């Protein structure tokens, strides 16, 4: 099986913090998201690889196990211990290997993980072109695990029908000391009697049946920053699944931006195509260009403007107060159709007044 370096995949060092790992994941997930790379199998495979790396490095327990893998002794184990390898050691119970206990001592997982981690929840949110450009507040519905309102997440009737666990004295943890070929190893584990919560339910809550948590649709009011792009993935820490006695998961939001009828956007700059008449192109003109927000802006068309010319209007892009983008207007000359006989005659008379060297593209082509 191929050994993958998850740190290299996310482009972070082995000493990276959890915030640095999450930030690197977001950037790469945005870059290789399938919505942004439709039909690109290599991007899809990369996206899968990035998620696989983050599932490990984004979880402190899994990361500890990844950083400290169990040694590989070649399958046969140490023959002097019964020929069964480490799995045949007695005294550990439950089919655990010696390394489960060693790693639990260092907080690396196995049965020693004392703090539960809620699952991340993913949703998709659609923003209008304007909302994505200027930022917005939006109410979203999230289906997630939350504590039962009746028992306040205890699982006990009225939130009071429970007693302190006699095995762990309410701490939710028990301490083990075990003899190993490496000496004695001490570890703390979730109490097997109370499941790590420190309480024993006397009478279960009738609403949740003692489960303490259930899935509900929760409405959240979220603020989306300006200049969001289609395919962006935004994470809101702690707004995923809630979990008893542990850390809630995150809410991951995939952004879809609806297209605009006139504009496209790159960061704070706006782009549009604007049709002009033959006479406007020949003689020049001043026209009003619609703005994304607010009053129209004035565009000066120079005399002799060529079709497909692009004019920049400084500061007419997305207005974010201290920062303003520009607007780029591509001018397309619209040639009239269905001319009357009189119009054709007048046009011929007009054309007879021009010389070839007045048509730059024609003159350049004839030279070639």
Q: Which stretches of 5+ consecutive residues score pLDDT under 50?
A: 71-114
Strand content: 25-35%
Briefly note the structural class of the backbone: alpha+beta
Please tell me how large the radius of gyration is.
Answer: 33 Å
Main β-sheet description: 4 strands, mixed
State the share of residues found in helices, binned by percent.
10-25%
The succession of helices and strands, N to C, reads HHHHHEHEEEEEEEEEEHEEEEHH
Shape: elongated
**Oligomeric organization of the protein chains:** single chain
Q: How many beta-strand runs?
A: 15
- Count of DSSP helices? 9
Walk me through the structure.
With 368 residues, the chain is of the alpha+beta class. Helices cover 23% and strands 27% of the residues. The chain is built from nine helices and 15 strands. It has helices spanning 6-10, 18-32, 41-57, 60-67, 98-105, 129-134, 278-283, 341-351, 360-367; strands at residues 121-127, 136-147, 162-164, 173-180, 183-190, 199-201, 213-224, 233-236, 251-257, 264-266, 269-277, 285-289, 297-301, 309-313, 327-334. The chain has a four-stranded mixed β-sheet. β10 (264-266) and β11 (269-277) form a beta hairpin.
Describe what is shown at a glance.
By secondary structure, the chain is an alpha+beta fold. The chain has nine helices and 15 strands.
What keyword list fits this structure?
368 residues; alpha+beta; four-stranded mixed sheet; three-stranded mixed sheet; 23% helix
């Amino acid at each position: 099986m191929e050994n993958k370096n998850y740190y290299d995949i996310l482009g972070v060092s082995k000493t990276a913090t959890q915030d640095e790992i999450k930030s690197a994941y977001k950037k790469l997930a945005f870059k290789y998201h399938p919505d942004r790379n439709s039909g690109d199998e290599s991007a899809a495979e990369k996206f899968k690889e990035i998620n696989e790396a983050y599932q490990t490095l984004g979880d402190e327990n899994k990361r500890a196990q990844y950083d400290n893998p169990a040694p590989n002794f070649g399958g046969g184990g140490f023959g002097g211990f019964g020929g069964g390898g480490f799995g045949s050691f007695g005294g550990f119970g439950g089919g655990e290997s010696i390394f489960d206990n060693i790693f639990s001592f260092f907080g690396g997982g196995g049965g020693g993980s004392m703090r539960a981690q809620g699952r991340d929840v993913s949703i998709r949110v659609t923003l209008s072109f304007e909302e994505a450009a200027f930022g917005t507040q939006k109410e979203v519905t999230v289906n997630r695990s939350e504590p039962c309102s009746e028992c306040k997440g205890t699982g006990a009737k009225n939130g009071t029908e429970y007693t302190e666990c006699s095995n762990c004295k309410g701490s939710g943890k028990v301490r083990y000391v075990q003899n190993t070929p490496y000496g004695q190893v001490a570890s703390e584990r979730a109490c097997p009697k109370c499941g790590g919560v420190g309480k024993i339910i006397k009478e279960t809550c009738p609403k949740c049946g003692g489960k303490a948590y259930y899935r509900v649709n929760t409405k959240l009011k979220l603020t989306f920053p300006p200049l969001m792009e289609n395919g962006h993935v935004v994470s809101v820490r702690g707004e995923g699944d809630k979990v008893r006695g542990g850390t809630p998961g995150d809410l991951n939001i995939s952004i879809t931006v609806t297209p605009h009828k006139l504009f496209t956007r790159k960061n704070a700059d706006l782009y549009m195509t604007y049709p002009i008449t033959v006479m406007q192109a020949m003689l020049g003109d001043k026209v009003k260009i619609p703005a994304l927000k607010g009053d129209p802006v004035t565009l000066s068309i120079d005399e002799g403007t060529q079709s497909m010319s692009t004019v920049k209007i400084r500061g007419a892009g997305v207005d974010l107060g201290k920062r303003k983008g520009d607007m780029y207007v591509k001018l397309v000359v619209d040639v009239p159709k269905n001319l009357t006989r009189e119009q054709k005659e007048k046009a011929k008379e007009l054309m007879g007044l021009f010389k070839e060297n007045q048509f730059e593209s024609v003159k350049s082509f004839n030279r070639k």
